[in-house]
Amino acid sequence: MSVSLGRYGVWRHETGLSPELAAEIEKLGFSTVWVGGSPPGDLALAESMLDATSSLTVSTGIVNIWATPAEQVAESFHRIEARHPGRFLLGIGVGHPEATSDYTRPYAALVDYFDRLDAAGVPVEGRMLAALGPRMLDLARERSAGTHPYLTTPEHTRSTRERYGPGPLVAPEHKIVLNDDAGAARGLGRPAVEKPYLGLVNYRNNLKRLGWAESDLDDGGSDALIDALVAHGTPEQVAARLDEHLAAGADHVCAQVLTPGMAAPEGDLRRLASALGLGGAAAR
């Protein structure tokens, strides 16, 4: 089996997703929906969105290995694969020590989890690992289809592609605000970055590897950091920022649309799809 992500996708927390929204996202021309957060192992939401669409790929971003036994998620994987062949990609990850009391020896835990997925018949090309640092990126390359980095920049994408060479998938997430008032856009983007991510050591370490100073990471993040992590501006300007990931070697980039008060994203998604030249948006 192989799973096609296409060039552009939409990342959204599971609490803000529904079969109806998935159908609209497919109509707009996006190729993949990423189920954000830590969806439960039954993967019922992913299956319902696949049921409501005809060609959309659905991926988890991510199933937390501490919360869901590999055998349970494998059973769900096979159920979905039988119903919707080649349209589901299992994204897994280890979460963060600040959020998971069981967080011990994460690398060894992931190796064990992959071993159990192997034993349960989940194919390498049907799964993906959320990875940031070098060791985890290498594990993603060796034991899965590739990596789904979160809260990164095109510089991280470029270094990952250089590390990987051709072949393994690189599918970063990037936050966006469709507002060309920089102050207002930062006002919406900063809280989404600061809490919880700037308080989590895994993300802080990755940003420091990319050259950001401690001062950039403290007090809600410097304007420069927020601008790097949250693309904002006109739809065309935001589309160009997403394309920087593709130019840096990504196979796919998924946009997390931030809206005031968590308002419904359909309007912004329609504007973004048009700026990206997606067929569904152009036809509407």
In short:
The chain is of the alpha/beta class. The protein has a single domain (8-282), classed as TIM Barrel (Alpha-Beta Barrel). The chain has helices at residues 19-28, 44-51, 70-83, 106-119, 134-143, 154-164, 182-194, 201-209, 214-217, 223-229, 235-247, 266-276, 279-282; strands spanning 8-13, 32-36, 57-61, 63-64, 88-93, 127-129, 146-147, 169-170, 173-177, 230-232, 253-257.
Structural class: alpha/beta
Order of SSEs, N→C? EHEHEEHEHEHEHEEHHHHEHEHH
The name of the CATH superfamily reads: Luciferase-like domain
Task: Compute the separation of the termini in Å.
Answer: 33 Å
Work out the oligomeric state of the chains in this entry.
single chain
CATH architecture: Alpha-Beta Barrel
Kindly give the count of domains. Answer: 1
CATH topology: TIM Barrel
Q: Largest beta sheet, briefly? A: 9 strands, parallel
